[in-house]
């Protein structure tokens, strides 16, 4: 039996897909495999419809000729932003039990902790970091969390700090009461992160493939479920750029499906997807 290709609202060809994924790769470094053909169609159809086009070829032409106005919309549509509070919880446990005690000794003179959540998506990771640090660092210490992402839409969600109530069902009741406010009335099915957490975090758009306007060292960096999208050469390049922003002995946390194995970087594996900058 021969299967008929499903009817599409807009004309969409392999050539269109190849143009779009090439543009995505050139800008973001992200590799787009062949099996994302249908995903690109479903993610971008809304833009094609909104702009009044009848084909993806028209959209490709528009994107190339109007990068200033359309490129952010394009990247926002095709990037994936799956996350949750305390995802890969062993990282946060290691942070509170091992990393923080070390930092309390190391940074005792200035009482400051500075960290980076690279690829922060809708904010669950940096807020989880903020909760962990507030619970394990003395009140008179300064905590600064830089949270960056390529996608401006998810950054807006992160900065607002408002989430559907089902997003926090896995958080312990005591922690939930301490760090979240329950919505009332029309907002009864939502929760809001308390201001004392939000004030620790600065949300910024950043393309990891471009210049990083960052100063000084971070005490540790979370870059989880980001490297998986890049080729081997780009992974090594990013890891070494992270390494340059960490002092010897500082930590890099990556995602459960990622590895720096056999890459020439300045890191040593010390735990489950936990790396430490090697000492000379």
Automatic annotation (TrEMBL):
Domain of life: Bacteria
Keyword hit for Methyltransferase: yes
Assigned keywords, A-Z: Methyltransferase, S-adenosyl-L-methionine, Transferase
Enzyme Commission (EC) number: 2.1.1.80
UniProt key word Transferase: yes
Parts of the chain that traverse the membrane: none
InterPro entries registered for this protein in UniProt: Bact_Chemotaxis_MeTrfase, Chemotaxis_MeTrfase_CheR, CheR_C, CheR_MeTrfase, CheR_N, CheR_N_sf, SAM-dependent_MTases_sf
Reactions the enzyme catalyzes: L-glutamyl-[protein] + S-adenosyl-L-methionine = [protein]-L-glutamate 5-O-methyl ester + S-adenosyl-L-homocysteine
Ranges for domain CheR-type methyltransferase: 5-280
Gene Ontology MF terms in the entry: protein-glutamate O-methyltransferase activity
Pfam families, per database record: CheR, CheR_N
Any one GO BP annotation for this protein: methylation
Chain residues that bind S-adenosyl-L-methionine: 81, 83, 87, 125, 149, 207-208, 224-225
Role summary: Methylation of the membrane-bound methyl-accepting chemotaxis proteins (MCP) to form gamma-glutamyl methyl ester residues in MCP.
Name listed for the protein in its UniProt record: Chemotaxis protein methyltransferase
Organism: Methylomonas denitrificans
Lineage: Bacteria, Pseudomonadati, Pseudomonadota, Gammaproteobacteria, Methylococcales
């Amino acid at each position: 039996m021969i299967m008929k290709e499903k009817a599409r609202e807009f004309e969409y060809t392999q050539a269109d897909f190849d143009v779009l994924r090439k543009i995505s790769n050139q800008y973001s470094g992200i590799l787009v495999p062949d099996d994302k053909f249908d995903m690109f169609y479903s993610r971008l159809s809304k833009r094609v419809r909104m702009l009044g086009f009848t084909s993806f070829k028209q959209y490709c032409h528009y994107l190339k000729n109007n990068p200033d106005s359309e490129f952010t919309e394009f990247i926002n549509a095709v990037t994936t932003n799956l996350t949750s509070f305390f995802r890969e919880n062993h990282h946060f446990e290691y942070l509170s039990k091992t990393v923080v005690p070390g930092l309390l000794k190391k940074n005792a003179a200035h009482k400051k902790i500075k960290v980076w959540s690279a690829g922060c998506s809708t904010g669950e990771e940096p807020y989880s970091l903020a909760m962990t640090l507030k619970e394990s660092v003395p009140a008179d210490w300064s905590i600064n969390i830089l949270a960056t992402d390529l996608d401006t839409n998810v950054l807006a969600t992160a900065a607002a700090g408002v989430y559907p109530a089902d997003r926090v069902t896995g958080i312990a009741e005591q922690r939930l009461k301490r760090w979240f406010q329950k919505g009332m009335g029309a907002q009864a099915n939502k929760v809001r992160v308390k201001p004392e957490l939000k004030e620790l975090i600065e949300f910024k758009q950043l393309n990891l493939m471009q210049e990083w306007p960052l100063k000084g060292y971070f005490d540790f960096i979370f870059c989880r479920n980001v490297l998986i999208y890049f080729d081997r050469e780009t992974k090594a390049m990013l890891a070494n750029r992270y390494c340059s922003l960490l002092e010897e002995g500082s930590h890099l946390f990556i995602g459960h499906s990622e590895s720096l194995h056999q890459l020439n970087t300045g890191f040593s594996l010390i735990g489950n997807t936990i790396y430490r900058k090697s000492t000379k």
